[in-house]
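Backbones bend. To wit:
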Amino acid sequence: MRAATVSRFGGPEAVEITEVPVPEPGPGQVRIKVAAAALNPVDAAMRAGVFGPAGADRIGPGWDVVGTVDAVGAGAAWSPGDRVVGLSTGHHTPLGTHAEYVVLDASAVAAAPASLDDAHAAALPLNALSAAQALDMAGLAPGRSLLVTGAAGGVGAHTVELAHHYGLKVTALASARDEAYLRERGADDVLDRARPLPAAAFDGVVDAAMLGAPALAPVRDGGVYVGVWPGQEPAAERGVRVTALDVRADGNRLAELSALADRGAVLPRVAEVLPLAEAATAHARLAEGGLRGRIVLVP
């Protein structure tokens, strides 16, 4: 089968389309015939070697997937033909979801949202799970105030949506051009990222833009800061609890998010759909920036 792989760290040109064996599911696993897989910033970081040596000849980018269960290992509670979404985590996996087939633990898989096409369903798992788990870490009760930086991005927008759904008072930090979109998604207020942030104004922040210390200043004494990139969070001060997300696969939580997507409460955005053969082009377009939504690869 064909898969996007990286045998040397570098720019988009490091992504190659190679022929690899079709993976076989083990006990508690399922094999998915990939219909679509999103490209995320973590894939670009893997390709560039941000996470260090792989310890293997090749690594395979791709965390998100939507597709059809093709084969089932012993004890996996899925059936061939089931349409599912899933999350493959790991910075040095030899085969990711940017491939024609992928094997995942059955516990990392959920029924795909019936209301979403393959491209939009493929953009759901990583970003929505990251948002949900970041909000869990924040632990804010309904009615509390939350600032979301990078609110128009994949993780940020879902954080706004879910925080609104959970009853928080949500302020989004983004470009002025994204104000209407973010208010539609549930933001109570939108701050222009080009303007200074208010000091000590919020009970917590989810720093999806990875601003670091500048995103800590708007948090009240004793509040909470949640980063989305472990190791990049600022030092704690003023009694603010500082933590960072290390997203994990969770099929049960993904099923909840899939149901919310079917209700219109969570809406993934897709910027462009490209064939798997153009994976290097997709990485180049991601590097250019300015996208509103994810690039999705289709085998």
User: Anything to note?
Assistant: The first strand starts at residue 2 and ends at 6.
